[in-house]
Amino acid sequence: GGYEVPNRLRTLHNLVIQYASQGRYEVAVPLCKQALEDLEKSSGHDHPDVATMLNILALVYRDQNKYKEATHLLNDALAIREKTLGKDHPAVAATLNNLAVLFGKRGKYKEAEPLCKRALGIREKVLGRSHPDVAKQLNNLALLCLNQAKYDEVEYYYKRALEIFESKLGGDDPSVARTKNNLATCYLKQGKFKDAETLYKEILTRAHEKEFGSVNNDNKPIWMHAEEREESKSKQKDSGPYVEYGSWYKACKVDSPTVNTTLKSLGALYRRQGKLEAAETLEECATKSR
Amino acid sequence: DQQGTSRQQQLEWDDSTLTY
After folding, report:
1. Interface of B with A in 1-20 (CB under 8 A)
2. ipTM (interface predicted TM)
3. Strand partners, A219
4. What's the N-to-C CA distance of chain B in angstroms?
5. Which candidate, A44, A54, A73, A287, has a CA 20 to 30 Å from the CA of A199?
6. A163-189: buried (b, 16+ CB within 10 Å) or exposed (e) per residue?
């Protein structure tokens, strides 16, 4: 509170973003550096405007994959914000998070983790334990732990994030499916295939129901068709084209990147179990919705 | 495909750092 980004910084930010999006970094970077110099002259180094400007330049470096330079700038911005806004300010949490992301991009998960945890602590304190921003932070923390094969922690963080998203944003929010998908990845890494399968089916059922209403005998999600096709395979050799399955086309029309990934992942699980017809059904559906 | 799933997961940048 109290501080607002001045208009000239906003304008500059927009300009820098425009240049950066065109790949014109040779223009964007000097522009930022000049602005930084001017700000430091007029306001001194320890000023929120300087911190904001450092963040803008860090973004440009990040887009150029210059993670070390970006990290250096964010550390500087962090120190200014802690001094000027206080240690428990949301801006401090955001900067800590982005520092963690930069370390993560360099594969330095161990270094990233404590930064992410500090960001989480601040957000919990400022926003309460079940705010969606807390869940987002938990997601980042889980991913850092996943990369370090700390699966118990990953599960704990994803489950907490899932609870928050479900209760605050509702079961149909894309964050829910995305987090379930991430949790399933963690299950797969541990060989908990049944748990992963359950989650994938939940995602597909939910997406189907959102689009076409409650599941019943005439309205089944794609994985049920896939399993039925698998079962009927043994009874009649050639099960024929998909058209036979009344609502197949309906089932196949549920479309989102997460659903698509889920179709492929559940397909791979079926394949592991030797359920090739079921696997093919899902894989074909995934290809179609591409 | 499992790789495909994990590749999709990316650390999320917080854009609010520019609004403070």
Report:
1. 1-2, 4-6, 8-14, 16-20
2. 0.85
3. A216
4. 40
5. A287
6. ebbbeeeeeeeebbbbbbbbbbbbbbe
Do B11 and A101 make contact, defined as CB atoms within 8 angstroms?
yes
From residue A67, alpha-carbon distances to A58, A100, A141 in Å are 8, 11, 19
- Predicted confidence (pLDDT) at residue A242 exceeds the cutoff of 60: no
* Å between A138 CA and nearest CA of chain B: 11
- Per-residue pLDDT at A245 exceeds 50: no
- DSSP lists the bridge partners of residue A216 as A219
Closest CA to A62 of A95, A15, A109: A95
Average pLDDT in the A242-255 region?
Answer: 54
Residue A206 corresponds to which tokens in the numbers above? 């939910």
Structure token pair of residue A222:
């794609």
C-alpha–C-alpha distance, residues A2 and A107, integer Å: 37
Note whether A254 and A181 are within 8 A (CB): no
Answer yes or no: is pLDDT of A281 > 80.
yes
Residue ranges of the alpha helices (H) in A3-150?
7-21, 25-43, 48-63, 67-85, 90-105, 109-127, 132-146
At A265, the amino acid letter reads S
pLDDT of residue A243: 44
Looking at residue A250, what is its pLDDT? Answer: 59
Q: Considering only alpha carbons, which residue of chain B is nearest residue A286?
A: B1
* Cα A8 to Cα A49: distance, rounded to the nearest angstrom: 10
